[in-house]
Amino acid sequence: MLSMRKLSKVYRTHMIETHALREIDIEVGEGEFVAVTGPSGSGKTTFLNIAGLLEDFSSGEFLLDGINVHGLNDDARSRLRNQKIGFIFQGFNLIADLNLFDNVDVPLRYRGFNSAERRRRIEAALGKVGLASRMKYYPAELSGGQQQRVAIARALAGEPRLLLADEPTGNLDSQMARGVLELLEQINAEGTTIVMVTHDLELAARAQRNVHIVDGQVSDLDHGHVTLRSVLG
Amino acid sequence: MFSYYLRLGLSSLRRNPLLTALMVLTLGVGVAASMSTFAVMRAMSGDPIAHKSDRLLVVQVDNSPAGERNDRGEPSDHLSWLDAKALLANGDGLRRSAMYGVGTVAEPPDSDARLRVQGLAVGADFFAMFEVPFDSGGGWTAEDDERAANRVVITRALAQKSFGAQPAVGRSLRLFDREYEVSGVIGDWQPQPRYYWLEAGNGNLFGEIEDLFFPLNNALSIEESPQGNVSCSGEGPTEPGYRGLLDSECVFMQFWVELADAGDRDAYADRLSGHVASQKQLGRLPLGERSRLLDVREWMVAQRVLGDDTRLQVLLAFAFLLVCIVNTVGLLLAKFSQHSGEIGVRRALGATRGQVFQQYLMQAGVVGIVGGLLGVGLTFVGLWLVGQQSADIAQAARMNPTTLLLTLATAVAAAVLAGLLPTWRACQVTPAVQLKTQ
């Protein structure tokens, strides 16, 4: 599903070069639930941004669902993102002016579905996260846990192959966090590949597999799985 | 996606209503200022008879004496009866009329009223040349011209004052101490400007038309003196009185000819040159080669219908609009910068830069539409204010459907123009950075 080989990311200013990722090799198979952990500033979010085609990488190779994304222009990356990836953010990132229906509608609009198809998908997605009855509510009228559920519904509505979650429970209390995690596990059980970035080791332990990134490098593989390999030095 | 962007644009108006109100107000005021002055200029410079303005020509015969001081290097606006008579006699062109203005008193029958009226002595062709519409009746015939008949065409207003609700055609109206038969009542006719009788320095360019029109030959036969500009160069009349005026080089008439085809202009110019040459042999028209033909548009330019101050006002108003647009750019930049989080989310969810561009340009366009609606309202106010300066301009400066549409279109164009930079900036939002800072 996701394959990175010798992938590096360097941020350059006129004075400094910062190596955010150094020749990392990561493979995530179809249907896996992988947690990417590491301390702050280790490069987790950079990895997630590159995986989500929100940022370009400096060198190496990246195949997303078998497609080599290197050299794709901005429009092609946008389309690929829209078709294959769902995002869940720590801060939910719902659009405050739009009600739940319209928030979930956003990625579907860019996909070009007709109105009936969009409605079907929105109702199904909101139904799955238990908010079908609140389609006309605005984000500010919901609790944090409910907002994150809406974000999950928005990510799911396009039926992506890959769900990228960045600290999805970071802004939630433990009870709400548990609910969101259970929902993610359910989604994974239904076949969606999930890559979750977190610094919460308890949360990471719920994933099938952990990838630990320190100082821009993959430092260990908890299951010794053949699909994960670190390149040190 | 158009309706989606439109819906988002409309709902974005509610977001930060203060900024929205400032933008709408800025655009509305800028557009209203420019459109009200532009409407005045357009009305003043518009072609009052566009479909034949290139076939309707004013004939200017220059009879200035050689070496005259204060010579503008152009023929006078008026010509002498000597030249007008010759041009009428040669019969060139499809239609032709010499004319001059008079002032008199109208005495309606069955009434003691004495109405002060303005008149224009014209030929029978006048009404067809200038396509004067009639409520009832019509002009007079060429035979009436020949025999200098006491016929008159009056305006609807004069007909009502003189005859009330009763039909005026065929009735008798006392003018110049004589009885005139009303042959027609003019309907809605208010050319802007009154191009058929323009006199430089006469402020009445956009005012009401004359109260009555009567045969030139009749005016000549009753020896009715011209009212308005009479300019006598050189030695002036050699004889006293009206006859002396007619036989002199004094200019007080204007002469129009209608050609069957605009292409006949050169041929008519040749005939005019022929007239000048023959008069030169008689010792007249030392500067006759400056004689010329002007079509309606050229005539209005020569008569400075559109003053330099009007042009300056329009330039200033559009400069003001430019300032408003620049202000709107700043306001839109402020507004869109608040949207960078949303833009980041939309980009992450699959919006291309082009789609973000369309969405935000539509937002700017929606601001333009609302600003335009306000602008239309303010343009009404602006035109009313301009109209307060003079009744003349009030006649010209009126809101019409074209001005209304132009006002809306200008507002939308201004808003879209103002929106280009902020929208481009919006497209440059890096989603990864925005999502991290959310």
Secondary structure topology:
The complex is a heterodimer of chains A (233) and B (438).
Chain A (H helix, E strand, L loop, with lengths): L1 E11 L4 E12 L4 E5 L6 H8 L7 E6 L2 E2 L5 H11 E4 L11 H12 L3 H14 L15 H14 L4 E5 L7 H16 L3 E5 L3 H4 L4 E6 L2 E5 L6 E2 L4
Parallel strand pairs in A: 3-8, 3-9, 6-7, 7-8
Antiparallel strand pairs in A: 1-2, 1-4, 2-11, 4-5, 9-10
Helix pairs in contact in A: 3-4, 3-5, 4-5, 5-6
Chain B lengths: L1 H13 L2 H29 L10 E5 L18 E2 H10 L4 E13 L7 E8 L3 H4 L4 E4 L4 H5 L4 E5 H8 L8 E4 L2 E9 L25 E4 H6 L19 H6 L4 E8 L6 H17 L10 E4 H7 L5 H30 L2 H9 L4 H37 L1 H6 L4 H27 L3 H7 L1
Parallel strand pairs in B: 4-9, 6-8
Antiparallel strand pairs in B: 1-10, 1-11, 2-10, 3-4, 3-7, 3-10, 5-8, 6-9, 7-8
Helix pairs in contact in B: 1-13, 2-11, 2-13, 2-15, 11-15, 12-16, 13-15
List the main descriptive attributes of the protein structure presented here.
heterodimer, A: 233 residues, alpha/beta, Rossmann fold, six-stranded mixed sheet, five-stranded antiparallel sheet, 7 helices, 11 strands, globular, disordered C terminus, B: 438 residues, alpha+beta, 2 domains, six-stranded mixed β-barrel, 16 helices, elongated
Care to give the gist of this entry?
The complex is a heterodimer of chains A (233) and B (438). By secondary structure, chain A is an alpha/beta fold. Chain A has seven helices and eleven strands.
Tell me the number of helical segments of chain A per DSSP (H or I, 4 or more residues long).
7
Helix vs. strand class of chain B: alpha+beta
Number of extended strands of chain B:
11
CATH superfamily of chain A: P-loop containing nucleotide triphosphate hydrolases
Query: How would you spell out the order of helices and strands of chain B?
Result: HHEEHEEHEHEHEEEHHEHEHHHHHHH
Which pair has the most extensive contact? A-B, 27 and 25 residues
In the sheet with the most strands of chain A, the strands line up as 6-7-8-3-9-10
Query: Based on helices, strands and strand pairing, what is the structural class of chain A?
Result: alpha/beta
Which strand order does the major sheet of chain B show?
3-4-9-6-8-7
Q: What is the number of E strands of chain A?
A: 11
**How many domain regions of chain B?**
2
Helical percentage of chain B: 40-55%
Distance between the termini of chain A: 26 Å
Tell me the domain tally of chain A: 1
Radius of gyration of chain A: 18 Å
Strand count, sense and barrel status of the largest sheet of chain A are: 6 strands, mixed
Task: Give the assembly state of these chains.
Answer: heterodimer
How many helical stretches of chain B?
16
Poorly predicted spans of chain B: none
Kindly report how far apart the N and C termini of chain B lie.
Answer: 27 Å
Give the overall shape of chain B. Answer: elongated
